[in-house]
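Worked problem 6 (solution included).
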Amino acid sequence: MFEATEITRLIQQGLPCEFVQIQGDDGVHFTGVVVSAEFAGKPKVRQHQAVYATLGPLMGNEIHALQLQTYTPEQWATVRQELGL
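Solution. The predicted structure is:
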């Protein structure tokens, strides 16, 4: 069983991020939001691959699923404004 806080730590360690929020209750299936300037100009699939790379062999093993929403800081500011956060 894996903890969401450990996934957050690994992502932050491997990728410069402005914001990371990972959630999951069963220890193997997780959802998350990752905001990084590194995502600028990259398609979503490359953004997700960059996050998965920070988790290495844990993906598909200890972590069965990680559903991501990825944003650049500019996109995240727009999303937050639209949501009233």
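Discussion: DSSP finds three helices and three strands in the chain.
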